[in-house]
Design goal:
four-stranded antiparallel sheet, Alpha-Beta Plaits, alpha/beta, seven-stranded mixed sheet, 2 domains, Rossmann fold
């Protein structure tokens, strides 16, 4: 982690501690809560499916998160006003030593088979014996996109069917870079990953190097104006429906005629809103898939 902060605290306190905040919440409120947690500058956030279709969100902080927890409760309690029902949620805080934390968040990531050909492999684990799948190594750090989340799984599963070698690809909201890296691994000609979160600057390029793909993907931090190319064959938009409707038209202008866009990050209640937006922007919907209350939608431009 941050060496300057660690050095200072280790001088003052030989046993530097961190804090794990665990939230159990309904699936439809999960993404909003994750976005809120990232705004609080955590060290990492992980998400996994909990009991009774709830989501278990674990975040890690270097400072006591009592103030954050109070803000978090107010935020969650207000989600009903936006049509997101958090349900009977819970928040628990546990104090960890730094060496415990280094292993604590990693234990939630396991090798994950996706679709017919893909294996997401955490960078700190060994390749499984007799593996026949395409390995995609990841060290997600603070970035979104571990392969564990249903939206990332949907994107990769559907990309197996629609993304072809030699295509040019733009990944809007690239996070950890998992989708961009998959595109490069299968032989796409030009791949651009774009995100506006400056806190994850080094994560995608590090994951690119882990997969022996250094300089195969062009990583950009900023907004869509940073993209000069205007005829991509394939577009990933694994972002929330609110962001899709806000920037989607501009993003689709970067997709060529007969290009393919894969939308995800859409919860089931927003199905009709998403379909309306996609069709009103001149795309023919080729397929809709659903996984754990999340949707993946493939559209063909100007069909």
């Amino acid at each position: 982690m941050s060496s300057s902060l660690d050095n200072k605290k280790n001088i003052d306190n030989l046993e530097h501690k961190l804090y794990q905040v665990t939230i159990m919440i309904n699936p439809e409120a999960e993404e909003a809560v994750v976005d809120f947690l990232y705004s609080c500058s955590p060290e990492s956030v992980s998400v996994e499916t909990g009991p009774e279709l709830a989501y278990c969100i674990k975040s890690f902080f270097k400072n006591n998160p009592e103030i954050i927890n109070a803000k978090l409760r107010r935020y969650i309690d207000g989600l009903n006003e936006f049509g997101l029902a958090p349900g009977n949620y819970s928040i628990e805080t546990e104090e960890l030593r730094e060496e415990d934390w280094q292993n604590s968040w990693k234990k939630f990531y396991r090798p994950l088979e996706i679709g017919k050909t893909i294996l997401i492999l955490p960078a700190w684990l060994d390749e499984p014996v007799n593996n026949q799948r395409t390995i995609l190594k990841l060290d997600p750090g603070m970035a979104f996109g571990t392969g564990q989340h249903p939206t990332t799984c949907l994107c990769l599963e559907m990309a197996e069917d629609y993304l072809k070698p030699a295509m040019t690809v733009l990944d809007v909201g690239c996070g950890s870079g998992v989708l961009s890296i998959y595109a490069a691994l299968i032989g796409c000609d030009e791949v651009v990953g774009l995100d506006n979160d400056s806190s994850i600057t080094s994560v995608p390029s590090r994951n690119e190097t882990l997969n022996d793909l250094k300089y195969r993907v062009r990583w950009l931090i900023g907004e869509l104006d940073a993209i000069k190319k205007k005829d991509f064959d394939f577009l990933f938009m694994n972002i929330t429906i609110d962001i899709i409707t806000k920037i989607g038209e501009k993003a689709l202008n970067l997709l060529k005629h007969d290009g393919v866009c894969l939308f995800s990050g859409i919860i089931s209640p927003d199905r009709e809103k998403a379909i309306s937006f996609i069709e009103s922007n001149g795309l023919k919907i080729l397929e809709i898939r659903e996984k754990e209350e999340w949707l993946g939608i493939v559209g063909l431009k100007n069909a």
